[in-house]
Specification:
It is built from 12 helices and 18 strands. It has helices at 14-29, 53-71, 83-95, 108-114, 153-157, 165-177, 203-210, 231-239, 256-262, 268-281, 300-313, 340-363, and strands at 5-10, 33-35, 43-48, 77-82, 101-102, 135-139, 141-142, 161-162, 182-186, 218-221, 243-248, 286-293, 317-322, 369-378, 381-385, 397-400, 411-419, 424-428. The strands form 4 sheets. The protein has a 6-stranded parallel β-sheet. Strands 2-1-3-4-5 form a 5-stranded parallel β-sheet, sandwiched between helices. Strands 14-15-16-18-17 form a 5-stranded mixed barrel. The chain starts with a strand and ends in an 8-residue tail after the last strand.
Length: 436
């Protein structure tokens, strides 16, 4: 049996990625060997997601697959942590007792002790990056105070807790010293940053201080909540050259009736005013959002209002989720009146609208020169992103190197010559060359 070799499987969002990276650092400090595959492992740790039905199903299937490996003697230990485990620990313990131990979110000490190690407090905040080293997620807060009726995150992650600026600066500097050039700012609600420890929302101050770190070239902001969006963040994005003109703001809907039932704390009018202000003050900003379709009180009228809104604003990026009924959330009492087919039809209609918008926006980029960072190489072409894209959720830029050898993690200029709905195609600009 292969001893002390641990495979960590991370499911769900980028916030879980950061949690796993912190756990990996602790296990590594205790001299456990981390391996990339269950085939190489003695033990498996699964960091689960419990956000919506599809995520729960994936988490449970992954647990069952690991348990099956244990039954066959291919591994000796299965440990489960994360959101699903936090929310359903008693049920999981009863239904899948073959798991050696269940832990909640961020219980690094419990997991490390389960393997016979001890928590190294001096290393708290340090991580082993699982992404390519040139970009990393920086989780600035945990939990959420927003009362959204459909969301179980506060049940799994608790209330909003900001991480102090000095600790985040140390973490970001360590990342930069190890080659990180792009920070992607995440949290359950990044716009609430600071309110609990500084008695004010000071996300803008944090962004500006992060931009002073040598080696950090791009900073992108995700998960910004619209109802209390700080005005000084708009100015920071507009004026700070290292803060990318990119903003991810999940809106979920635009109908006043649906927004009220969702308990989003913002009206349709205020949402539109905020978006118009952002677009006016930050020309060329890339706006990303997400919506929920099939919410219990979303009539055809409300859905068409959402369609019209998307056509009007013309978001650069958009994701759509089917409503997932979650027990113990306020919207649970509303039931789940739409069939899966009805939800899928509405989702498809929104994505069709968005694909046409995205194609038009990409066509407008043909003939332009973009600064990109190289993520990977594939089939003799390079996979890159500009400041307009975030890894995994947005499209890519496929780069013809023009006979040149491009280095992963470096910045280059490319000339865009073609596109499809979501991806761009470019050639390495030999005259422009490497930018950094």
């Amino acid at each position: 049996m292969k001893q002390n070799k641990i495979n960590i499987i991370t499911l769900g969002c980028s916030k879980n990625t950061v949690d796993s990276e912190r756990l990996m650092r602790q296990l590594n400090a205790n001299n456990f060997e981390l391996v990339d595959s269950s085939d190489e492992a003695d033990s498996i740790v699964i960091n689960t997601c419990g956000f919506i039905d599809a995520a729960k199903e994936e988490s449970i299937n992954t647990i069952l697959q690991a348990v099956e490996l244990k039954k066959k003697g291919k591994i000796s230990k299965v440990v489960v942590a994360g959101c699903l485990s936090e929310r359903y620990m008693d049920d999981l313990t009863k239904e899948i007792p073959e798991v050696d131990k269940y832990f909640g979110t961020e219980d690094y000490e419990g997991v490390v002790k389960e393997f016979g190690g001890s928590l190294k407090y001096e290393l708290l905040g340090e991580r082993i990056i699982s992404t390519p080293k040139h970009y990393a997620y920086l989780k600035i807060s945990e939990g959420c105070d927003n009362p959204c009726s459909f969301c179980a995150i506060p049940l799994m992650r608790g209330g909003h807790k900001s991480k102090p600026i000095d600790e985040l600066l140390i973490e970001a500097k360590n990342l930069a010293d190890n080659g990180t050039k792009e920070l992607i700012i995440i949290g359950q609600d990044t716009t609430d940053y600071g309110k609990d420890i500084y008695n004010k929302r000071n996300l803008a101050e944090l962004l500006n201080k992060l931009s002073d770190i040598n080696g950090i070239e791009w900073i992108k902001l995700l998960y910004a909540y619209p109802s209390h969006f700080p005005d000084d963040v708009i100015e920071t994005i507009a004026e700070n050259p290292k803060v990318c003109k990119y903003l991810d703001m999940p809106l979920q809907h635009i109908s006043d009736e649906v927004l009220r039932s969702m308990r989003r704390g913002i009206s349709s009018r205020r949402t539109k005013e905020l978006l118009y202000k952002i677009k006016e003050r930050i020309p060329g900003i890339t706006l990303r959002t997400t919506f929920i379709v099939g919410y219990p009180n979303e009539t055809e009228k409300e859905f068409q209002e959402l369609c019209d809104f998307i056509r009007d604003i013309e978001f650069d990026r958009m994701g759509v989720f089917n409503y997932s009924i979650e027990e113990t959330t306020p919207s649970f009492i509303l039931g789940d009146p739409f069939s899966q087919n009805e939800k899928e039809a509405r989702k498809a209609e929104l994505m069709k609208i968005q694909s046409e918008i995205s194609l038009k926006k990409n066509e407008n980029l043909i003939g332009q020169k973009l600064k990109v960072i190289i993520d990977d190489i594939e089939d003799r072409h390079y996979i890159a992103r500009s400041e307009r894209e975030v890894p995994e959720v947005d499209g890519e830029i496929i780069v013809n190197p023009n006979g040149q050898y491009l280095i992963r993690g470096n910045f280059y200029e490319v000339d865009i010559y073609d596109c499809n709905e979501y991806d761009l195609f470019g050639e390495h600009s030999v005259n422009g060359g490497k930018t950094k």
